[in-house]
Amino acid sequence: MDAKNKAGLYDNDPPRRSDYTVNAQQPFNAEPPVDLMRRYYVTPTEYFYVRNHAPVPQLDVHKYRVLVDGMVIKPLKISLHELKNKYEHVTVMCTLMCAGNRRTEMASVKAVKGVGWGNAAISNAVWRGVRLCDVLREAGADLENPHLHVDFYGVDLCVEEKYRKGYGSSIPMTKAANPNGDVILAFEMNGEALLPDHGYPLRVIVPGYIGARSVKWLQSITVRGDESESYFQRRDYKVFLPSVDWHNVTEWWDRSPSLADLCVQASITNPIPGESITTGSSYLIKGYAISGGKRISRVDVSLDGGKTWEAVRLFPGEQKGHADRYWAWVFWDYNVESFPSPCQVVCRACEYCISV
Known about the structure:
The chain is mainly beta and 356 residues long. Helix content is 11%, strand content 31%. It has helices at 3-8, 34-37, 80-86, 103-107, 132-139, 173-176, 231-234; strands spanning 21-24, 29-31, 50-51, 65-70, 76-79, 89-97, 122-131, 149-157, 166-172, 184-189, 192-193, 203-205, 218-224, 265-270, 283-290, 296-302, 310-311, 313-315, 330-336, 346-351. The longest helix is centred in the middle third of the chain and has 8 residues, at 132-139.
């Protein structure tokens, strides 16, 4: 595909806000202003971060169908109307986070490839749709088989797939079939139909997993015996030994597991990098924490680079008891009465199982 035709693919992308931090123009990847993150526990749709791997598809909802096939007894081809009218609707609050969130921080330690995200490639929304497990059950999939995988492909044709296939990714059947895993096929976001940048008319929401598994513009759902063959499952979104780099990564791709569950982590939103704070002044440090579903039990802040720590005040959001279904982020604050100098502010989060 020549450069002229490639540029034309993006001519029909939707308009976006001018105050986004744009990390890549084509395909569009952008995050909202950091100072807006803590204003809203549920991120307004217009400020939700955007992570695209291709031009935004133009889909006619009246002709749209999603295919359910593979290792099933009864393959399905379902319209959005049938999906909405045949299956029970459920609502899930879930924070999505790009696996590359805070990559610019990583790049300050070691050069890495990928979109250079700050710490705002994360947003929280209320999603509405139908349970994936209900659709798989209707198709006759073996929901009890822990060795199976559920493979999703979108309509968006990606350069990494030589423009022949859409973005693809998969999750284990153990996650897909578990009603408490809350995986849904979502058609609404914050009470409205999905916007084009966020997967209209239908997308997958996989709570507690990296955002890369929540495939947008859903085209197909395939039950298979191994994980997706997609580039984005087999040749991206993996973590290696420190000694592995692009010159020797080839032998490690198939030996390394694909990223799935989110790890517990915390991030500071205020102060922002480079912000000037007067020595001896008071300051309210703010941030967020997230996990793969376990409840955040504590967040700590250090003003001396990790030598000493203090616990912060948590704003936990949803209350679900001891169920491991905390899919939304936690906000936190720490009031400094007199800012020291020198000072290095760092933070950490703990789950109830004491993972840090």
